[in-house]
Design brief:
5 helices; transmembrane; transmembrane helix; mainly alpha; G-protein coupled receptors family 1 profile domain-containing protein; membrane; 172 residues
Length: 172
Amino acid sequence: MVFQTLLEMFVLVGISSHLSKLLIVFTELTEVPRSVSSKYTVVGIISGVPLITVFGNHLTYKTMNLKLRSWWLMENSLALNIFLIVIVIVTMLFIFIYFSVTNKLGKLIVSRKKHEVTVKKRLSLVRRASCLFGLILIFVVSSILYINNQKLVWIIYQFAGVNVLLASIFGN
């Protein structure tokens, strides 16, 4: 139970950290006053929501005396349903903020030529965050498929392929 809780926490914080990067760039673009304090608020909210979700899930299992059948998320379990709801919400927020930020950055590149290099660096940061977000999301989905369908050979190969891809990208 503790291993699953820690694994869920690290995966959700890993996914939401890329959302926090987008939100920090978004607060810089919207010129919110006192953006330094808003950065701390953004990071706190984005990492706090997954932590509250995971610990709430852990407490639910403990208080209801439910037994886990696996070290990861099994189909038709409360843990999987809560995890998927949080993943879907974070993904929808990420997509919405990604398109908002890239749209604003595209307009800034056209309107302010002297700051073009800085804006392009921000745009590349946003694009890298979206690539990493997508890769981690693919890893999470493939790991859930693998745990729940270990008898299907193609699922074993796709899980191994995703892990090799992630290792080759992050290993360098």
